[in-house]
Amino acid sequence: MSIALYPGSFDPPTNGHLSLVERGLAVFDKIIVSVVANPAKSTALFSLDERLELLKGSLAHLPQDRLTLSTFSGLTIEYARQAGAAAILRGLRGSADFEYERQLAEINRHLAQDVQTVFLMADYKWFFISSSTVKEAASLGADVDGLVPKIVAEGLKKKFGVNK
Ligand code: ADP
User: Fold this and answer.
1) Predicted TM-score of the model (pTM)
2) Is any ligand 1 atom within 6 A of the Cβ of residue 28?
3) Parts of the chain with a pLDDT under 50
4) 23 lines ligand 1 (CB under 6 A)
């Protein structure tokens, strides 16, 4: 059985993340979507539990027997091994992602030759979407419906005090 670990901040999950999971399910038997508890990103808008809830709601339409949600801290490759994942799934938008992702993939490769990083692109519609741009737009009062799953749009409205 092919298992991929899809690690990320998911602060919050966007339609780009969702598209990647959907495409990943066409390639892998199972995907572990895992929120990284990373102290360097402790400025997160949503708590770990909130992000897990948002992911759960966002992925509810997909086959649940092929998805696992979790959180982890520490080395991604160690968690991948522990979870039985032979691949780390990551997404690419453009060249800015490429340089960063390449460094991550190379260091992970150095640390573990038995875990492969696999890159997929999200649907072209989500090419310009990142969690940070969505958060910034929402914080300024923009309507982000259509860029993020419904449950996330509602979560952002609550965070930024917009009652609709
Ligand atoms: P991280 O802090 O690990 O980069 P993110 O939640 O920002 O966590 O992203 C997780 C992964 O999903 C990364 O590989 C990122 O490039 C990818 N990703 C995020 N948004 C998109 C998108 N719109 N299209 C393709 N990949 C994306």
Assistant:
1) 0.95
2) no
3) 164
4) no
